[in-house]
């Protein structure tokens, strides 16, 4: 189990941000393939969930996080005009994970989901690839602000493809960082409001704890570190 630093306030323009992070191996596995990062100075918050045989899922998520953070801190590679820096950083992570998988036989076929938030003044940039999610709790309303890149959702968008790529009920992901030489990163923006609560998580939470229960935990009035512990506990209990 890995924790980051104790919650601390950080001010972006007129907003004060408080952040907490938790990761847990869960009740079924011995290898934790998740990785996370948050940096109040950069205003960047990331979750990756690795996939692959042996320990390569852990390699993929760790490499993706490190590459994204390096790209954002060094501005290398330089984002093309009109491209958000987090999108460019995630694409750099895709290249790094894909290249590692090509040269290391133990990492063949590895990849990772990625979801990240970047604060820019009073605007939130939301970037993701795969089925790790971002949620928003605003004025009592709890809602996802990302949509899984899954076969099920593809069939909803493209009914003409139903059954051609797999069972219509399949929630297998169709996009991830590192599986191919190039990847599309979904990027959206939204204004930040006072009192917002943002949750980033992998499917170890979203698959096991219903949205209504997550909302109950988030709105119970507990400190954020207790909320994070309770979310982990709920996932493990299920």
What does this structure look like?
The chain is α+β, with helices and mostly antiparallel strands and 238 residues long. It contains six helices and twelve strands. It has helices spanning 56-74, 85-103, 151-157, 203-206, 211-218, 224-237, and strands spanning 2-3, 9-12, 15-18, 22-23, 34-39, 44-51, 111-120, 123-129, 133-138, 141-144, 186-191, 197-201. It has a five-stranded antiparallel sheet with strand order 5-6-7-8-11. It has a three-stranded antiparallel sheet with strand order 10-9-12. The longest helix has 19 residues, at 56-74. The protein is globular, with a radius of gyration of 17 Å. Residues 1-5 have low confidence and may be disordered.
Based on the model shown, name its key terms.
about 240 residues; about 30% helix; alpha+beta; single chain; 3-stranded antiparallel β-sheet; 6 helices
